Amino acid sequence: MTDLELRAYLLGHASDGSAARLEEQLLEDEDLFAALRSTEDDLFDDYVRNRLTPAERAQFVARYQGGHEGGHEGGHEGGHEGGHEGNSRRLAFARALAERTAAPATASSVNTASPSGTPRMGRYWLPLAMAATVVMAVGGLMLSRAGDVSPDDRAAVSPEPGVAATTATPAPTPAIVPPLVATLVLGVSRSAGNVAVIEVPASTPAVELRVRLNPADRFAQYGVELRSPANVIAWRGDGLMAVTEGQELVLVARVPADALTTGMHEVSVFGAHANATPEMLGFVTVQVSRIP
Amino acid sequence: MVDELLPKRGRDWALAALDLERLLLLLDDDRDHAARTYEYLRHRTIGLLRWWGASNGEDLADLTLDRVARKLSEGAEVPRDSVGAYVRGVARMVFYESRRDPHVQADIVALTVLPAVVDDGESQTLASLDRCLAALAEAERQLVLRYYGEGKAKQVRSQLAAELGVSATALRIRAYRLRERLERCVEAGVEAPR
C-alpha cells in the first residue's frame, strides 16, 4: 500500500472498492493501521504548513473540519480521534509541532527542564523576543451589517481612517512570543479607503493577521487571500476558523513573512458553509514595509 | 485477562463469555495471544469507525465485536484470514444502525451546527509540547524534530532511516509511536498545565 493510496483514502477519493479492501486489511494488519495513522499525521502537518494543493485542502477541510458527511460510503465527519474536538486537538498539535520545527536550530534548542523543574527558554527565542509585538488597529468602515456593533465598540478599534496606531512593546520573556500581530477591520469594498500599515522586521517569521469579523458572519470555515503589489495571490489560507475573544469574533491567519513584500497588499476575507459557495466578507488594504 | 474483555452491558454475561471464547479461538489458538490480538483488533475497529465519522467509536466497536462473537456462536463460519473483512462488514452495519438511532442523530446534528470557533490555546499547546519534548530521550527528540521538521520530507526521512540503519517503514512506525506519545502528553499538559 503506497503513501499515495493511503492519502487518497484519507482524503475521500479512493474508490469504494479499494477503500473497502484497505479497511479490511487494516483491521488485520497493525503496521498498516499505523502507516495510515502516520499518513494522516502527515496530512495534518501539510495542512497547517500550507503544503496541500487547493483541491487537497478542500478535501481535507471537508473530511476533518466539515460538519457534513463526505468521503466514501460511511462519510468522514469525525476522524480518528473522535469528531470535531479530536481533530481540533490534532490541528493544534500539528501547528505547535510546525512552529517548533520551523524555529532555527530547533533540534538543539528544545527546552530542557532546569533542576528546579522550570523549563528554560531556548536561545532561539531571543530574536523573537527582541522583535516587538506590534498591534495595529486600523480604521475602516465596518461591514454593512456592522450596525450590530455599538459606536463605542467601533471607536475602540477604528481610529482615524488610514491612520495606524502602532505600539511596540518588548516581550518580557514569555513562553510564547507572537512574531507580529496586526489587527484589521474589513471594509465593504476595495475603495473603502482604509489602509493598514504593517512594518515587518527581517527577523519576523510570520505575520498574524487578526481580522475582526462581524459577529453575524459565522461560517463553518473562512478563507483569507492576500494579493501582492503585483496583483497576484501572494498567500491564501483556506479552512480557517474564527476565534471568540470576549464578544468579538476574530479570524486569525498566520501569513509567512516571506509572502510579504514592500508595497500595497489587499486582504480579502470570505466565509463558507460546507458545500456552499464562499461569500465575500470584505477587504482591507495593507501597506507592508519590510525592515531589513 | 479475558474477563476484562467481556461486555459490561447488554446480554447475559455467561452467554457473552461463551461467545467471546469463540471469537478468541478464531483470532489465535493461544489464549493469551488471542486476548492481545482482540485488543489490537478493537483498537483498529475504533479507528475505522471514527474514520467513517462515528463520534462514539469505542461503544460501536464493542457492539461490533460483541455481535461478531455472537454470530460465531450462532454458527457463522469465518476463516481466520477473513476476520478483517467479516469484522468490517459487521462494523458497517453497526455504524449505519447507529446513524438511525435518534440519540446518535442528535449528536451528529449537534456537531454539524457547532460554530467554527476554537479556543485560543495555541500558546498553551506549544508550551506543553516543549515540556513533552524535553521529557523525551535526546535520541527520540531528535528523531521527532527531524522526521516532522521542515524541508523535503522524503529526503529527510530517507537520510534519517539510513543513519539509524532501519527501513523507511520501521522509521515511520517509530515516529508515529513517538508522536502518539507526544500528543497524549501535550493533551494532558494542556488540560492540566503545570
Structure description:
The complex is a heterodimer of chains A (292) and B (194). Chain A is an alpha+beta fold. Chain A folds into two domains: 3-102, no CATH class; 123-291, Coagulation Factor XIII, Chain A, domain 1, CATH 2.70.50. Chain A is 30% helix and 28% strand. A five-stranded mixed beta sheet of chain A has the order 4-11-10-6-7. In chain A, strands 3-5-9-8 form a four-stranded mixed beta sheet, with no helix packed on it. The radius of gyration of chain A is 21 Å and the shape is elongated. Chain B has helices at residues 2-5, 13-27, 31-52, 57-73, 83-100, 102-112, 122-135, 138-147, 153-164, 168-191. The model of chain B is unreliable at 104-119 (pLDDT under 50). The interface between A and B is large, with 69 and 67 residues.
| Strand order, largest beta sheet of chain A | 4-11-10-6-7
User: How does the helix and strand content of chain B classify structurally?
Assistant: mainly alpha
The tally of structural domains of chain B comes to 2
Q: Please tell me what the overall shape of chain A is.
A: elongated
**Helix count of chain A, per DSSP?**
8
Cα(first) to Cα(last) distance of chain B is: 35 Å
Write down the CATH class of the largest domain in chain A: Mainly Beta
In sequence order, what are the helices and strands of chain B, one letter per element? HHHHHHHHHH
Largest sheet of chain B, described in full? none
- How large a portion of the residues of chain A is in β-strands, by DSSP E? 25-35%
Helix percent band of chain A: 25-40%
Assign the CATH topology of the largest domain in chain A: Coagulation Factor XIII, Chain A, domain 1
How many strand segments of chain A? 11
